[in-house]
Structure formats: structure tokens, C-alpha cells
Amino acid sequence: MSYSFSELDFIKPELGAEFTGDGTHFAVFSAHAEQVELCLFSPDGKEETARLALPKREGDIWSGYIAGLKPGTVYGYRAHGPYDPKAGHRFNPNKLLLDPYAKQVLGEIQWDDALYGYKIGDAAEDLSFDERDSAPFMVKGVVQDPDFDWAGDAAIRRPWTDTIIYEAHVRGMTMTHPGVPEELRGTFMGMASDAIIEHLVDLGISAIELLPIQYFPDDRYLLEKALRNYWGYQTLGFFAPQPRFLSGKAITEFKTMVKRFHAAGIEVIMDVVYNHTAEGSERGPTLSFRGLDNLSYYRLSPDDPRHSYDTTGTGNTVNIAHPMVLRMVLDSLRYWVSAMHVDGFRFDLASTLGRTRHIEFDRDGTFFDAIRQDPILSGVKLIAEPWDVGDGGYQVGGFPYPFREWNDKYRDDVRRFWKGDGGLVSGLASRLTGSAPQFNHSDRGATSSVNLISAHDGFTLMDTVSYDGKHNEANGEDNRDGHSDNHSHNLGAEGATDNADIIAARDRRRRNMIATLMLSQGVPMLLGGDELGNSQGGNNNAYCQDNEIGWTDWSGLGDPFLNFCKGAIAFRKAHPALRQERFLTGDAAEDGSIEIAWYMPDGNFMTDAAWTDSNLRALGLFLSKPANGEGMDQLFLVCNAGGDCTVQLPSVNGITVWKRVLDTGAADDAFAEHPAESPATVYGASIAVFEPVN
Q1: Is this structure's pTM higher than 0.85?
Q2: In the chain, how many H helices and how many E strands?
Q3: What is the pLDDT of residues 510-527, one digit of tens each?
Q4: Domains of the chain, each with CATH number or no CATH
Q5: Which one of the listed residues 219, 253, 348, 388 is annotated catalytic?
Q6: Among 99, 310, 385, 531, which one carries the catalytic annotation?
């Protein structure tokens, strides 16, 4: 069948391949190309059936319209232009290029030297030029029909104060769950299964944060080691769902998953990677952006444009300062909200997105301004991973509203306090109250901090209490990869053990850390599987472990710890005092009542000397907030990382009698109500929470 471009009687502003109902409009950006060709392929992507030069160029956008071309058409691009690496140009029309706006990706990359724009092994290295056709080895885009029945679906827009996040991997969470149909394991439809949704609802989760689901390939060096890009932080297609997560061939499976989560009251947050791509450094392959316009899409060294400028540790950095690259990122975000109905984003290495043309991080930079003024994006949940590996990249607390931020200071201080490190009462106090030193500025609220004990990157909660050191040997890097400073403690044995005392101590420490997470101001995030006692065998960098190491172990469904986690989440939801929108200052109200106060075990207020006492291991916190309806929600928390402790319960706001309602030292029933008591004995290495006796 022959194809030709025809004239449109209207202007199509969209980039990518857009089906109009009567045909398909193609548009792609390249500022430095001399010609861009559209290549059409057979349905299986193996045979190139047509090659047509895009006929129109306007404002560096190349476009063309083919009447009658329908969804399902397989395509790619070739770009002609200068091959001058020393000037930053790497055009090579022998290389088939994935459309940056492709809504679906067909196939898997078959790694071959033909995928590189230069000759692998040549003495001139990346200055050489490779003439082999890469199409037989390359993935292709697929034209999409945007229609989907969203009837009954609506954005939830849950307040941050009521948000409880669950970080999970689509494949890892579903591969071994006994209730997920075998044919759906590892897929979006597996995530949408009754078994997964019922578990999340029963646990009390309000938002699921999915590790990268935009199209990413497997790294060549990982495949050569019989490993895989499991986590997915190597994006190549910012508009396309990952094909390996589809049980069939339709991207509507992702939409079905989102719709089912929404029906269950659960928001969907995507972990997105706009700071770099899978093409790597200048010695990487030519798969898309590099071949379309290397000088525009990537940051290059200001001293030598032959080389990439890397603030991400992956070999390249997306040039977010370029207006058309910024547009691509914003178009991608809007697409996932408008067409796919997601509720928010977690931005990987987000400091890179805030870097200006001069490389410095700027919290008032173009990317943040663009997000804040956007009527679609400004209303969804936005979470920053507030660091990268470049100069000045660590920016915890440095992002503007409406961004929330992952808070590694929270993780480290909470782990260290419960490990028994000295001098941590001040740090714990900060973390319990929303990390004000980092976030209480620029009119930011007390929900700015996303609090976490563990995440995909690092030890699981179980491994935090089971290993003194990392055990990443399976990654094939001689245990050199991954963090070495984990603030973990094995409590007497490295790894799994049959020792009942060690098991009991580990269980109590896990309860302490989950309770701390749910008792803290801010937004709690639970790592998927932590509620089940999931272990990765001490591997704290399972990015390449698409196997039992990286997958969630569901054998803990019957473990009492799961019930404790459910209880801790329910306790948080029941108490407005734990979910406040503003930072608590300690100032007394007009009626003299107190909203927050800190106490020593003897019942006196904390003193300056107590805050700096490296031997103090117990801290009392009083919190108060008007409850829904009438009355006040008032709690007294005691965190005790030392031995058994006698605590004088405070007389505050007219309260003189208290009852214990949470006790992590009680293994059997931590949430049982106890009779009034004063003073109270708080067990060593435990948390006790008290409510007023009415």
C-alpha cells in the first residue's frame, strides 16, 4: 500500500501521532535537523513499508498528515543533519528513532552495535560514523485511538492531611500474590485485581505510588550479566506505558487499573524520570532524542559539547531549560493526568528539573513556574525527590509550594533513634512535628514532608532490623553498589534467625518505627511489603533483581505485624491532632490552652540542657487539635528508646487523668485500652500513647 501526505484544512498544535478520526497527523520537534523522515512498518514492526519526508516545518516542528491512516499503525523517524559530535550534533539517518511522544511502544530493543550512531570499537570512538540500519533491532511507536469509557470515574483530590502513600512496583507486588490470577501477574491488570485492591483498602492506604511505568528498556550491560532493569529508572518513552506490564496489547489496561483504583478510593501517583533518559552518555546508543536533536534535548558540557553534562549519575541530563524540551515534559505530565487520569507524580532526582541554563538549582526556576501556573498540573499531587548528584543538588526543604518532598532526614533520624544512638531526642522531635527546620518557611505547610522509614532504594523495614551491612552480591558489582550508611542494626544475628529473643526484638523495633511514622506530622509513605515483613536478603539496591529478591513476599499475610500496621494507620486516621495542616509553634492560645508541648519523663517541660543531653532516650509530646464536631483531640506520646521508664503524665489543658491506648511494647494487642494510670511505666524500646479520660 502506498502512502502520501495530504493537506489539512486546520492546524494541529499537538506533537506526536494524533488520530483525527479520518487519518493521522505526525509532528516532531528538531531545531537542527535538515530533514525528518516518517517510517511506516508492518504490524509486527519487522518490515519497513514506507519512508516519507515530513513536508512541513514551522518553528522547528516538522509535521505531516496522512489521510486514512488508522490506529495500530507502526512507525518511527529518521533525522538527517550534521554529524559533528564536537559541536554537539549526532544526526545519523541510518538510525531509526522512537517518537518522543509515542503513546505505545511495540517490541523490545534487541541490543546490537547497529543501535549506536558511531562504530563500536573504532579508534575514533564516538567521533566515527556507523552506516548500519538500526530498524531491525529497534522498538517502534504505535498510533493510538484515545477513546476509553471513563464513565463514573472522577479525580479524588484527597487532602494531603488525609493521605497515606504506599510505594509499590507493578511487577514486584503481583508476581507471587496467591490471589492474583497467574496470567495477570506482573501486569497493570494484576495490580487492578481484587486481591491487590482489597489488601490496600483493608490496610487503609489512600494513594499508591508506582515505580516507573513509562516505557524503559533493559540496559545492555545488565542483560549481558543475566540481569534486568527492574526498577525502571531509564525512561525512553515519556507518554507510553511499559509494554511488559500489559497482559495483552492494549494500553487501555493502564486506564482500567486507574479506574479500578479510583472506584476503591485510592489515588494513583506515578514515579516519573524526566531528569535523564536511557540513551546514556555520548557513548550510548542513538534511540530517540540523541538522533533527533542532541544539542537541544540534552545538557552538554559547556567546555566541550562532544560530552554530556551529567548531574544524574546516569551519563546524561535532560535539558529542561530548553523551551521545547520543557514543553515535552509538561505535555507528558498533562497527558497522564488528562488522558490516563492519574492523580499525581513523584519526580525522580527532581533537583535536576530545577537547574537553570547556568546549571544552578533555582526554586523559582522555569520548570516550577510552569507547573504552578498550569491549570491541570497545579491541582494534582506533586512530590519531589529533592536531590541529584550534581553540585548543590541536595535540596531537602528547597522546593516551592505545591511540591511535597521525600525526607531522608526523617528516615535517618527515626532509624538512629530506635537503634539507640545518643543525642537524637531533638532530631526525633523535629521529625514528629513535620521537620520544621527544613520546611517551615515560604508559607509551606506541615504536610510538606513525605515521611518514610524505607523506600525502594535502600533496606526494607525488615532488613533494617536484620542486617548490619548491605548484601548486594547478586548485583554483580562485588557489593560495591548501594548505600553503606543505612543506620540499620541486626539485633544480634546477621539475617534470618530462629532465635526467639532476636525475633521479638526485631518485631518490637518494627512496631516502633511504623508507629512513629503514623504518629508524625507530615505525609506518611509505607514501602510496599513492609507490612508483611518482606525482606530482600539484605540487598539495598535491588534495581536489577526481577526475581524473588525484588518481588514482594506475601507469606506474611498471616503475620500479626500486618494487623499492627492496619491498627497504626487507623489510629492516625482517627486523630486529627496527628494530621495538622500548619506547623505547631508552641504558643498558647488566647484561653491559655496549649497545642503542643514537650516533656521529660519526670513530668517537667523539656529544658535546654535536656535537649542536648546525649544520654536522654525518652521524650514526651503533647498534641492538641479541635476534633471534627465538638471537643478537642488531645494525645500524649512517649517515645522511649532506653530501658523501662516511669513517666509522670502531664497536667495540661485541664487534663489530669489519662488512659493508655497504644503500646508497641505489647506484642499481642498494642491498641487495647488500659485503665487510668499515673505515673505510667513505659517499657524499654517502645512507644506509649495516652488519651484523656473523659
Answers
A1: yes
A2: 15, 28
A3: 999 999 999 999 999 999
A4: 16-142 (2.60.40.10), 160-274+343-577 (3.20.20.80), 584-692 (2.60.40.1180)
A5: 348
A6: 385
